[in-house]
Structures are given as structure tokens and as C-alpha cells.
Amino acid sequence: MGGLKLPPQTLHALPFQLVLLQEMLPYIHLVYFRVDISFWEGPGKSGFGARSTKASVQPVTEELVEDKTTENPVSGDAIRRRFLEFYASRSHKVLPSASLVPDDPTVLLTIAGMLQFKPIFLGKAPRQVPRATTAQKCIRTNDVENVGRTTRHHTFFEMLGNFSFGDYFKKEAIKWAWELSTKEFGLPADRLWVSVYEDDDEAFEIWHDEVGVPAEHIKRMGEEDNFWTSGATGPCGPCSELYYDFHPERGYKNTDLGDDSRFIEFYNLVFMQYNKMDDGSLEPLKQKNIDTGLGLERLARILQKVPNNYETDLIYPIIEKAAELANISYALADDRTKMNLKIVGDHLRAIVYLISDGVLPSNIGRGYVVRRLIRRAVRIGRLLGVSGGGEDGVFLPAIAEKVIEMSPHIDPDVKARGHGILDELQREELRFVQTLERGEKLLDQMLAEALLNAQKSETLPCLSGKEVFLLYDTFGFPVEITTEVAGERGVKIDMDGFEVEMENQRRQSQAAHNIVKLAVENGGDLAENVHDTEFLGYDTLSARAVVESLLLNGKSVIQVSEGSEVEVLLNKTPFYAESGGQIGDHGFLYVTQDQSKQTAVVEIKDVQKSLGSVFVHKGTIREGVLEVGREVEAAVDAKLRQRAKVHHTATHLLQSALKKVIGQETSQAGSLVAFDRLRFDFNFHRPLLDESGAIAMFGEKYGEQVRVVEVPGVSMELCGGTHVSNTSEIRAFKIISEQGIASGIRRIEAVAGEAFIEYINARDSQMKLLCSTLKVKAEEVTARVDNLFRGAKDGKK
What's the pLDDT score for residue 518? Predict the structure, then answer.
């Protein structure tokens, strides 16, 4: 290669004086060890969006040991602890709550306690324990309009759950649910009602004959209410629910368990015993599972004897703080004011825990969920007259401080991230206030146009439903404010049209948020017959392997001929599959005859993971025919692998430098480790200055064996990617761009190793061409171009 050449030992300083690679210790150790870590909870990372490593690695049961002498036995924290201890004493492993950001592309946010166990329910991951219990943070925004209006709807809530993975089933689940409710928590048996699926005679008999629930307190209900499905296909089964009766004096006749004024469902037991097929038929599962969920806020309401979930000690202190800032007495407030205070209290819980788990406000995906909740809280708070007391009038951080104060037993990491959470809320609230002011101007324009059009057409002035929805959704204008302002100008609004727009949004939200898909793509045969792929690529770049399956256009075939695009599944492979931001390896599969003559060649251009840890090699048959069962020589392109290793290790060093320079609160928001460059997205609210600096392992999944990559004294990360064994292999590193890509998210692109040399040589060639064209030396190019620009401007005058 012509142009600039650097010896392997040469190191190039990072721009912006971030961190010099010369200062890095020369050796990176790849350390392998086994720890007691659960496969469903990826080990912690620093900053937003990370569970602490300690919480992930050590049994959570130890955290339950605390001073209970002064504890209120029916406080929210006590109920959570007592639930977990109840099931821990029955051989359940207490596991930590998963992040609100799920490791599952089918759902936007964690909406149920069972989500972290999905690989087990699918049969795609082995169970690590036969029984488990959790207190899971959850977010649901599909029915956000009901928050504050009903006694029980929330965006953020905790789901207490006990789970069995092919261990116990209906009898134990039902008996323990009853024992927990009546003995541990002391609920009167005559206040409890039970629902069962209409055809589930087994559950009915257990409740009636073995537990002793009167038949008149057991309701058989249809598929819509009491049969749980994960989607069109996949694991499913009947469920049974426990209800608390607030008004037993109303008797037994014509009882409707859906009557919110009388009943509240607080415990749901799902008996996952069938697999729903494409034709709708139900096949018994080989491994029957139990998935339960008890709503912490609902049980707290019952035990604390308050009229709604919001007045429990889990939420009410936040409401009180909002009322204090608005100079309002909640007890003396009217129903509408109380409703608005409940909304603010609910939304601040969701906002704080989402930001803590790394979800920052933006206009897409999860970030948009946070932004909408923040804007809703701000506009409702402004209606109430809430003020933070400062010159800017910002109040969300003051309320959020109360949420953070109450967080240790829910998520101990929230308090550690408190400063970053409050800073983000401050920025976002100020930004939204500016948006509101723009919305006011737009509303004024809309009203002027409506009046003018009405005058021309001699009709009554009216704002369309789409216009009202635009103000509501984009600018945060409550419909009541739009209605009030429009009424003052003599303009009506099309509420029917607005409701149509709202219903469209609700349907889209439900589709994106409220379904946990457990069905496996590409059919059941493949899922049943293909085993996990053994990865050999840390130790070798070539290996003999056997073709276990071939896919042509997504369908399983026996053989594939020359020229065809094919997906190849091997029993073992040296090819790295795309994961944690690092792209999949390239290379070839060779079929040889008599150890010498090649009979088929497959060029591999991508490798992806599917069904857990099945590696799918995507490529083209360049020569011959490939058949299932054939032995192949799998060979990775060594030069491209080296480029990926260099960029991946450089990414670790970049993250470490960022944390040292701009603070530990920054965290990764995405990454790409490619052959020609690396890309690193991180949470930061402003551009990096020349003196600011850089430092990620994101989207990884970890099994029992955890791989730790350490640059002694600089960086230590849990990472499944491939890395260099010595930092001298990086040779050189250069940041080629740094820019904002979304609100609060910055992106760095950089090159290292051979990619750096190619980049520098290309720039060098461009500079030589400029020098030749302008007939100046390299150091004179800038001055020459400035002169040309000034001359061009003067010529236009």
C-alpha cells in the first residue's frame, strides 16, 4: 500500500486531547471466569441504563435482610419484601428487576414481569433455576388517558411475580396464592373472589375442593378475559385471577367482577400449558410453566385502606410534593384538581425510572414515550399552577427529587444517577416551554384562519380534529385549553374528529407496547430441530463443521446449487455473529472431496443470531452444490476480522475516555463496530469542546460464562465481541466526526488501525491534488482558499 505507513508500535493521539493511546497500558487481557449470573439479566454497565454488576451477580436475597423493627408492615416497601420472602422460603430464587429497556425487539418497553423469562418459555434457553420470584418495574402507556381518571391505571407500576419453569403447576400456584393473600397479608377470605377460564375444570376444582373457596365466589369467564395468549401462535393457557371485594354487602346475585366500584383484580395466575399452532389448534407443551403477576400498587391500596392506588405510600408523597409547589391542599381540592395531581405524580415515577434506565427524551421510539410523558406532566402542572420557585419556573426536577428519594428499595441505581436525571429534566422542561409558546402562536394562526374561512363560506368557524390533535400531540396543548381559547374567539372544535385521531394513536400505541410475542419466526420445525451453535471464533479463524440446515428464501431445503443466496446453519463455527454493535464476520465455506478437491464454495457476507444462539451464515453459492449433512471447512477472512477487533477495542478505550472527561453519568446509546470504521452514540446534551473527551458495551446478552475484556488501569467491560490482544495492534486512532443526532444524544465516528491508514492516505491524496491545483504548499492551502472566496465575493458586488 502506498502513502503513509506506520510501524505497529506507532500510536496516534486521540483528537480533542481525550486520552492518548500512548498512555494506555500495552496489554489487554481477555479474562474468562464463571460467576453466578442469571442469563436473563445482562451484567451491569456504568451510567444510565445499567444495573449494577453487584446486583446482577450476587443473589438478591441478601438485599432483603434489613431492620424490620420500625417498618410499617403494610407499607409498599414492606409488601414487596414480604412477597419476595414468602416465595424465597418456598425455594424460589429472588432475582432482580430487569431494565425497563427490554432485550426483545418485539416490545418497546418492559410491560410485564414475565418478559425477562421469554427465552425459557420459548424453550430457546435452558432454565437456570426451576423457580424464581421478582419485583419487576413495568411501563405501559397504551391507556395513558385513563391515568388519574380511574383508581388503578398507571404508566409506571411494579409487578410482583412467582414463576415456575417446568417445576410446579396449578395446584401449588393456586394454594400459595391463597396462602399469601389470606395468611401472609391477612385478607379476609370472604372478601376474595376467583375467576377461572370457562373450560378449566381442574382450576375450579382446586379452588373449590382443595382451597375451600365457595362455588358462588368462583366465576367462570370466557377466552377474552381468562385465556392468555402471547400472539397469533406460541405458548398460551388459561388463567385464574384473584379479586378483592370492597362491598360484600351487595351480595352474590348478578355479580360483575369487572365492576371497578366494587372489585379490584390484584393477582393473576397464568397456566402456560399449550402451544397455539398456525391453524388455531392447541398442543400440550412438553414443559408446563407458571407465570404470575401481583400488582403492588393494587395490594397496597387494599392493605392501606385508601380509596385508590394513588393515595398509597408508593405515590402519594409525590402528589403531596406537586400540591405543595402549586400551593394546593390535595384533601380540599376538587375532583378535577385531584385528577391532575395524580397524573403528575404517576408520570414523574415513569419519567425518572425511564431516564435512569437510559431512555432519554427524543422524537423516536422509547425516547418519544419519555418526551410525551414529560410534556404531559409539564402542561398539566402549569394548569395547576405548579412552580419550582426559580426564575425559569421549572418544577419537574423538584418533584423528581421526591421520586429519587423513594427509589432505593425499587432500584438502588436511581439515586446514584440522580444528578443526571435532574439535569435532563431541567433541559427538557425548558425546551418544552419554548415549544408551548410556539404552539400558542400556531393556535392563534389556526383560529384566525378558521374565522376567515367561516366568513367567506358563511358557516360557523371550527377547528378540525386534525388541527386540535396536532396541537395536543406535537405542542402539548390540552384539549380543554384549546377549547377554552377557541371559545373566547367564537370558534368551535371538531371533537369527533379529534377522537378519531386519538383512537388511531391508541391503536398504534397498543400494537407497539402491549403485546409480548413468544412465537418463533420461520416455523416450529426449525426451532425444534436446530441446536445452539458452538462458537469457536475466540480461539481460531477456521474449523471443520457440519451443515445442520439450509434455508432458501426463508424455507428449509436439503440442498442449494450454484448462484443461489442461502442461509447456512452449522453445528459449530469460527464466524462471529453480529452482536453488541459488532458486525458479523465475512469469509468462505469450502466443501472438499478426499481432503483436496473443492466441490463447493460458499461466500459468507453476513452472520446473524436467531432463536437465541443459532448462528445464521448468509451467503452465495459460488461453486458447486451444498447439502445438509455435508462437512465444510469454515474460514473467516482474517484481515477483516482484525479490522473489527481493532475497532471494537478502540471503542472500549473511547468509552473509558468519555467517562473520565465528561463524567460517569454519560452512557452508551448505540454503537457500530465495522471493518472500515467505528460509530459510538452516547448521552450528552451539548457538543464536545476541544478539551472535552470521549468513552461502551450495549445490546449484549450474556450466558453463564461471562467474558471480561480488561485494559489494566483503563477499562474493564463485560463483552462478547472480538478484541486485539495488545493495544499496539490498534496502531492509530482518529475521530473523524462528532455531531448531535437526536435530543441529548451525540455521535462519534472514528477509524483505527488499517482503516486509519486508509483514511489518512485518502486525505493526503486529496491534499496533494489541492496543492497541485492551487499551486501552493499544503500549509498555504487555507489562506489560498480564503483569498479565492474573498475574490469571488468582491466580484459579485
Answer: 44
In the three-class reduction of DSSP (H, G, I as helix; E, B as strand; rest coil), residue 542 is classed as strand
Indicate the SS3 state at residue 782: helix
d(CA 508, CA 496): 19
* Low-confidence stretches of the chain (pLDDT beneath 50): 1-66, 512-525, 527, 691-702
Is 586 annotated as belonging to a binding site? Answer: no
Distance CA(258)–CA(243), nearest Å, equals: 10
* Residue 778 DSSP class: G
Strand partners, 606: 618
The residue length of the chain stands at 797
Q: How many CB atoms lie within 10 A of CB 62?
A: 8
Specify the DSSP class assigned to residue 52.
-
- HSE-CB at 494 with a 13 A cutoff on CA atoms is 18
Q: Is 103 exposed, middle or buried (0-12, 13-18, 19+ CB in 10 A)?
A: middle
CA dihedral 257, 263, 265, 269 (to 10 degrees): -50
Provide the grid cell at 582: 459488532
8-state DSSP, 2: -
Question: How far is the C-alpha of 703 from the C-alpha of 276, rounded, in Å?
Answer: 29
652 in a labelled binding site: yes
685 annotated to a ligand binding site: no
Beta strands in 558-596 (DSSP E): 559-561, 565-570, 572-573, 587-593
At residue 69, the pLDDT reads 54
In 18-75, alpha helices (H): 53-57
Burial 25-39 (b: 16+ CB within 10 A, else e): eeebeeeeeeeebbb
Q: How far apart are CA 162 and CA 84, in angstroms?
A: 9
pLDDT at 509: 57
Distances in Å between the alpha carbon of 360 and those of 42, 250, 650, 680? 20, 48, 25, 16
Return the number of other C-beta atoms located less than 10 Å from residue 434's C-beta.
9
C-alpha distances (whole Å) from 363 to each of 237, 370, 466, 514 are 37, 9, 19, 20
Return the HEC string of 606-654. EEEEECCCEEEEEEEEEEEEEECCCEEEEEECHHHHHHHHHHHHHHHHH
648 assigned ligand-binding residue:
yes
Q: Nearest 5 degrees, angle CA 51-CA 300-CA 224? A: 85
Write the single-letter amino acid at 256: D
What is the Cα–Cα distance from 442 to 450, expressed in whole angstroms?
Answer: 12
Position of cell 416450529? 524
Cβ within 8 Å of residue 334, ≥6 positions away: none
| Helix spans in 89-193 (H) | 118-121, 170-179
Angle between helices 418-457 and 465-475 (to 10 degrees): 160
